Prior knowledge:
Blueprint: E1 3-5, H1 12-16, H2 34-37, E2 61-65, E3 82-83, E4 86-87, H3 88-95, E5 101-105, E6 116-118, H4 127-135, E7 142-147, H5 155-166, E8 172-176, E9 182-190, H6 191-205, H7 214-217, E10 222-226, H8 237-247, H9 250-265, H10 273-286, H11 291-305, H12 310-337, H13 352-356
Parallel strand pairs: 1-10, 2-5, 2-7, 5-6, 8-10
Antiparallel strand pairs: 3-4, 7-9, 8-9
Helix pairs in contact: 10-11, 10-12, 11-12
Amino acid sequence: xxxxxxxxxxxxxxxxxxxxxxxxxxxxxxxxxxxxxxxxxxxxxxxxxxxxxxxxxxxxxxxxxxxxxxxxxxxxxxxxxxxxxxxxxxxxxxxxxxxxxxxxxxxxxxxxxxxxxxxxxxxxxxxxxxxxxxxxxxxxxxxxxxxxxxxxxxxxxxxxxxxxxxxxxxxxxxxxxxxxxxxxxxxxxxxxxxxxxxxxxxxxxxxxxxxxxxxxxxxxxxxxxxxxxxxxxxxxxxxxxxxxxxxxxxxxxxxxxxxxxxxxxxxxxxxxxxxxxxxxxxxxxxxxxxxxxxxxxxxxxxxxxxxxxxxxxxxxxxxxxxxxxxxxxxxxxxxxxxxxxxxxxxxxxxxxxxxxxxxxxxxxxx
Length: 366
C-alpha cells in the first residue's frame, strides 16, 4: 500500500484543531497519532518532492452524493445544514468547482452554482446505486467522488487527489481520516474502473441497491492520502457543532467569511485579503475609521469597472493606499507649519542660521 500525507495535514490543518476536545465518541479530525497512521514504508510529500497542483489542471467530472437519510441527524436535511453561513452541499460544490461537469445525486434544490441532477434507482438505494446514477451523466476519464457533508474540503485537496491519480497507475486515490480509515467518498477515480466494477457487481447481485461501497473499493487498486481535516464529515449534531466552532476560531474565521461572502454574491474572484486589510488600516489611521469600509467598497467598485480580476483589485487598492498615505502626510506637514515660530525645532526657524552665526558674519552662500 502506498500512503501519502496530504500537504498541510500536519501543519495548517493540524493547527485548526489543536487542543480542541473531540465530539463524544469520535476523534477530532486533526488529532491523530502520526506514527500509527503511517506504516514504516509510507511515502510522504516533502518540500523537495513534486506536490499535487504543480501540473496543469486535469479534466474531470465531480460526482456528489447528497441523497442519504441522515438518520443520526434525526432525518434533517443534511446537505442544507449551514456551517460558516453556507450549506454543507455548497461548501463541497465550491471545493470541486474546477470540474467540467458536476453531478449531484439527490432531489434538485437551489445551489451556489449550476449543477446537473441525477437520482438513484430506487431512491435511497445506497451509495453504489447513487454512484451508478451519477456516472451515467459523466463522460470524463477521471471523476472525484464526494459526499455532501465535508465542511473542510477545499480545492487544494481535490487537486491533490487528481494529480496523484494522474501520475500513477492506480484505479483511485482516496483520503484516510484521523483514525486511518478509508474515506471512499473523498476520492478521485478512473471512471473506466468504476464502470467495470459496477457492471461486475450488477451481474453478480442482480442490482446495486443496498450494497455497501466497500464491495466496489475492495476490488480497486487504491492509493491512500492521509487527510484528517479534509475528510472530516458531519454525521451527527456534535460533528456540526465541532465544525462550526472551528470555523470561528480566530486564525481561520476571516478566510471562511470571505469564502462565504463570495459564494453568497456569486463571485469567483481570488481576493488578496492582505492587500485590502492593509488598505483598510491605512484609511482608518490616516483619514478616519469610517473611511476603511467606504474605501474598500470604492476599490471594489473601481475594480469591477476595470474588469474585475485580481489585477484590477490590486491596482485600485494600490492607488487608494497611496492616496491615504498622501492624505496622512499632508496632515503631518500642515500641523508642523502651524506651530508658532518659537515652538518649532531650532533647525526649522528662518533665523536659526543667523542666530548661530558670529556678529557681522554673512550667511554662507553655498
